[in-house]
Design a protein that fits this description.
The protein is an alpha+beta fold. The protein contains three helices and five strands; from the N terminus they run H-E-E-H-H-E-E-E.
Length: 113
């Protein structure tokens, strides 16, 4: 269980991996999102094994270059923001975090100078 209790019940799905792609932690929302794939039983498994070849290759490149990836998807009339980013511990690359947030289909955008 993570040290920060907000993580567990945060409304977005949070999945944390190490530098090799091993899933270290999932919050309740991630467990629900990935329940058909095993839910919390995915902890200890490699995230790369959970993706088809094209996505796996992209994840491998992101991990190798420590490059974030941000995009939106729409499935079943639900729009999600997917934010995948490296995380660091004491300045050293420690793995990746995927944050998946359900957002409105039409999100207001404000340009502020």
């Amino acid at each position: 269980m993570p040290e920060h209790h907000w993580f567990k019940e945060f409304p977005g799905a949070i999945t944390v991996t190490d530098t090799e792609g091993i899933i270290l932690e999932m919050n309740d929302a991630a467990e629900e999102v990935f329940k058909d794939d095993g839910g919390r039983a995915l902890i200890g498994k490699n995230v790369l094994d959970c993706h088809p070849d094209a996505a796996r290759g992209q994840l491998e490149r992101m991990m190798e270059t420590q490059t974030p990836n941000v995009y939106t998807i729409v499935t079943k009339d639900r729009k999600k923001l997917i934010f995948q980013t490296p995380w660091y511990k004491d300045g050293q690359y420690a793995g990746f975090i995927e944050l998946s947030l359900e957002i409105p289909l039409d999100v207001p955008h404000f340009a502020r100078d």
